[in-house]
Design goal:
Blueprint: H1 2-22, E1 27-31, E2 40-41, E3 56-68, E4 71-75, H2 78-85, H3 89-100, E5 111-116, H4 152-162, E6 167-172, H5 195-211, E7 218-220, H6 238-255, E8 261-268, H7 273-279, H8 282-285, E9 290-294, H9 302-309, E10 314-319, H10 334-346, E11 349-354, E12 358-359, E13 379-382, E14 385-388, H11 390-399, E15 407-411, E16 419-423, E17 429-434, E18 441-447, E19 450-456, E20 461-465
Parallel strand pairs: 3-18, 4-5, 4-11, 5-6, 6-7, 7-8, 8-9, 9-10, 10-11, 12-13
Antiparallel strand pairs: 1-2, 1-20, 3-15, 13-14, 15-16, 16-17, 17-20, 18-19
Helix pairs in contact: 5-6, 6-7
């Protein structure tokens, strides 16, 4: 008996030691540039161990935390919804569960962007209050979500049934043309005499979607306000947007007890002065949740300029087109993961949204007079056939593991190894790493003074979870 009781504590120590080590084994999901792995789970890596790193290393420190994460996803354009709703019931259900579900074979998209009225990726241009020339409707008596009821709204309802917690951002491309200086869906400016009517338009939209069971978490005031060349589009300068927010939209949302967040700007990183100008206005500032950015111009680091000046205001990455390179037999993940997944979150964004969810093999639909003829979807839909493209895998490397409520945590920079780390609500650590070099890179992941040796082929992306 004495021998048994003497040995028992040692046995327990061995068991607990093995359990502690097994909890530090690392899961790896990999995409290789040659497509030998496409967001594919690899054999579990051995646990962290004591040692001294003698190569490139990335140190993860969960004690240093940054912004909370709302989610990762795509724009559900009218064109995306049109293709999805035309699929057979079985094929549509399978695709939506794969994209928005949280099961083993799903990628867990948790954030969507939709357009208020048509975007340039609709078959035709419309608003929710289109009228004959020379007439107006300041009381919004003719407001009707009608065009979206045939595709966007039913697809959103099916998505919500799969993932009820999904966040939805809504952005207008243009007000009704009768509100504009040029009476056209493309370009022009919002007439000041219709500011109040346009506020009612926003409220009708939010309330109408709510009646359909769809909560709009946030709106941007205007998509790409400095690019009036799309159809539809609107020119809205920073002084105009500031005036609209502080004297019309903000007070109206407050009076109506609307909790939908107001996000300003929603355009490229080359003009951080635009949101800064508006946030410098104390009357506008109080109604604003944060600023939205795209990356068709400028550098992603510019977002930190806005954060450093207004650290209490949020940042969002609201749009970027990511497409397969023509005639490329491999997959080019380095730029989008480096600049968008890593870059946007390292520069304080709470979300990442790519443009757009779905198109057909010809990148249709798109509008005339400025619609986008090269906007490939994250998935290409041809009847019931689905092809997954670069944008799909770019988002998947984050969305499946970095769930809403995760915190970005510190991770050190390493040469040619762009990376970002997160701590999930259930305590897991997620590290996304890109090999941006032209050769295989070996590196150590350092965590709590222990290390794990890893390697990535040139152009590869790895998501490590422990």
């Amino acid at each position: 008996m004495r021998l048994f009781f003497t040995a028992f504590p040692s046995i327990l120590c061995i068991v607990f030691s093995l359990q502690a080590r097994s909890q530090k084994t690392v899961e790896l999901w990999l995409t290789n540039a040659d497509k030998s792995a496409l967001f594919q789970k690899q054999k579990t890596l051995p646990g962290f161990h004591k040692g001294v790193h003698d190569s490139a290393f990335i140190e993860v420190n969960e004690k240093i935390t940054y912004q909370s994460i709302d989610g990762f996803g795509f724009a559900l354009t009218g064109g995306s919804a049109m293709h999805i709703i035309r699929m057979s019931t079985e094929a549509r259900s399978s695709l939506l569960n794969e994209i928005f579900g949280t099961a083993k074979n799903s990628i867990g998209v948790s954030y969507l962007r939709v357009s208020i009225g048509a975007s340039d990726l609709n078959e035709s241009v419309f608003s929710y209050d289109d009228l004959p020339a020379g007439t107006s409707d300041t009381s919004m008596q003719h407001f009707d979500l009608g065009p979206d009821k045939k595709d966007v709204i039913p697809v959103l309802k099916e998505i919500i049934s799969i993932y009820p917690g999904i966040k939805i951002l809504a952005s207008p491309w243009s007000p009704p043309s009768w509100m504009k200086t040029n009476n056209d869906t493309r370009g022009g400016r919002l007439k000041p005499e219709y500011y109040k009517a346009y506020v009612k338009y926003f409220l009708k939209y939010i309330q109408g979607m709510k009646a359909e069971g769809i909560t709009i978490d946030a709106i941007t005031v205007q998509n790409e306000p400095l690019h009036p060349g799309n159809n539809p589009s609107l020119l809205m300068t920073a002084p105009d947007e500031a005036e609209f927010i502080k004297n019309y939209l903000g007070p109206a949302f407050k009076a109506a007890n609307v909790n939908t967040k107001i996000i300003l700007y929603d355009h490229n990183a080359d003009r951080p002065d635009y949101p800064i100008f508006i946030l410098n206005d104390p009357q506008a500032y109080k109604y604003i949740d944060g600023s939205g950015f795209h990356l068709y111009g400028g550098k992603i680091e510019a977002l930190s300029i806005v954060h450093d000046k207004f650290p209490e205001k949020n940042l969002y990455f609201t749009e970027q087109m990511v497409v397969d390179r023509p005639h490329d037999t491999g997959i080019s993940m380095v730029w989008p993961v480096t600049h968008i997944i890593v870059g946007a979150t390292r520069n304080w964004c709470r979300n990442v949204l790519l443009w757009n969810l779905a198109a057909d093999p010809s990148f249709k639909p798109f509008t005339d007079r400025g619609g986008c003829p090269s906007c490939q979807g994250a998935v290409t839909i041809d009847g019931d056939q689905v092809t997954r493209n670069t944008a799909y895998y770019t988002i998947a490397h984050a969305s499946k593991f970095v769930r809403p409520g995760s915190l970005r945590i510190a991770s050190s920079e390493a040469d040619k190894l762009p990376n970002v780390a997160f701590k999930t609500p259930d305590g897991k650590k997620v590290l996304i790493v890109v090999n941006g070099s032209q050769q295989m890179k070996k590196f150590d992941i350092v965590y709590k003074n222990e290390l794990l040796t890893a390697k990535l082929e040139a152009g590869a992306v790895g998501t490590y979870i422990w």
